[in-house]
């Protein structure tokens, strides 16, 4: 970026050199964390690694320690197994600390602070890429009862360490916006202490530090930083720990436009850590006004992955113009690999909503995919046919049978636009099929 802020430009350069390149994709497992510990931490005497306990299914939960100062800062990530961005950022930051021992900022961090990282609190959920742990407990609704061993481990280590500040790292839904019409790449929150949204000293501390982080991230990625919903939830660790007097910085990683891997949010997490420590040193953040925290744009859920605009839909012998909203969802397939499935979210008027991708379909008619099977054989649709055959590993004749069987089982000519289901539709202009969605697979011609 030509107009990039000079300080941010320097921080981005540090990130590029420190990014742990072996973390790729959204499905991060415990064995990936173990490899990272072995690769970048085990041989570095600046780091100490301690086993805190095990998950329900016996996977290790470790604590990584860095620094020799009196001020303790605690990070934890992936208490929801399908939220890996914070774990990646922790290892990027640890890699930065380990490889830049001569850097002035690292020297100051090491002297003044003792950092504690608990990456991947929920390794069982991570294994199956799901929010809850192995017995179906949402760890972030288990802060009071401590039913699960993973929750108990987190509660115990926080009480033992008595940190100056805690960083609680999550992934938010991909479709949040920051203010009016920008995707929320990062959302920040100083968790509330009650339903009246009052403050205590810990929350004021967190708000002032968040203002510092926000001001700098705005320079890195303007209009894409938001404030997370502050609805009070005493069962969550962030709210409970703030109420107990621990300042908590909640960071929720979002999807920036078509960045489904959330690499933008990963970088912004890293920058947040650097900005935070730069401000904690000398306590410069304490000069910030908490009123500025309240004007950080509140995130909203108002956009879709794809909107098909002005689609021609046959209705009672006439043709009506409608908009269709489609969202892509992550899931594990039978081979344990992550894939995306497309669902139909809304049919009708979407003039007050927007999509990350918008397609003008005013020249196209929407129909059940079954009605256009015969068109797949035409030359004009060879690209669609090829993608279909590759996606389902079936030749056209067998694929025709599969489409017809699925249609006879699930669809009808008048009832094929079923909201919250895997879409099975085709967009046609003349004899050319421009787009189809079959069993949740979106294929463009």
CATH topology of the largest domain: Aminopeptidase
The biggest beta sheet is recorded as: 8 strands, mixed
- What does the overall shape look like? elongated
CATH class of the largest domain: Alpha Beta
Beta content comes to: 25-35%
Question: How would you sum up this structure, described in words?
Answer:
It is a single chain. This protein has 445 residues and is of the alpha/beta class. The protein folds into 2 domains: 295 residues, Zn peptidases (Aminopeptidase), CATH 3.40.630; 142 residues, Urease, subunit C, domain 1. Helices cover 32% and strands 27% of the residues. Helix 1 crosses helix 9 and helix 3 packs across helix 9. The longest helix has 20 residues.
Keywords:
Aminopeptidase; Urease, subunit C, domain 1; alpha/beta; 445 residues; single chain; 2 domains; eight-stranded mixed sheet
Briefly, what is this?
The protein has 445 residues and is α/β, with parallel strands linked by helices. The chain has helices at 6-18, 30-41, 85-99, 104-112, 123-127, 149-161, 201-220, 237-244, 263-280, 291-294, 382-392, 396-410; strands at residues 47-54, 60-66, 71-77, 113-118, 165-171, 177-178, 182-183, 186-189, 225-227, 248-253, 299-300, 303-315, 318-332, 338-348, 354-360, 365-368, 425-429, 432-438, 441-444. Strands 1-2-4-3-5-10-8-9 form an 8-stranded mixed beta sheet, sandwiched between helices.
Give the topology, please.
Layout: H1 6-18, H2 30-41, E1 47-54, E2 60-66, E3 71-77, H3 85-99, H4 104-112, E4 113-118, H5 123-127, H6 149-161, E5 165-171, E6 177-178, E7 182-183, E8 186-189, H7 201-220, E9 225-227, H8 237-244, E10 248-253, H9 263-280, H10 291-294, E11 299-300, E12 303-315, E13 318-332, E14 338-348, E15 354-360, E16 365-368, H11 382-392, H12 396-410, E17 425-429, E18 432-438, E19 441-444
Parallel strand pairs: 3-4, 3-5, 5-10, 8-9, 12-15
Antiparallel strand pairs: 1-2, 2-4, 6-7, 6-11, 8-10, 12-13, 13-14, 16-17, 17-18, 18-19
Helix pairs in contact: 1-3, 1-9, 2-3, 3-9, 7-9
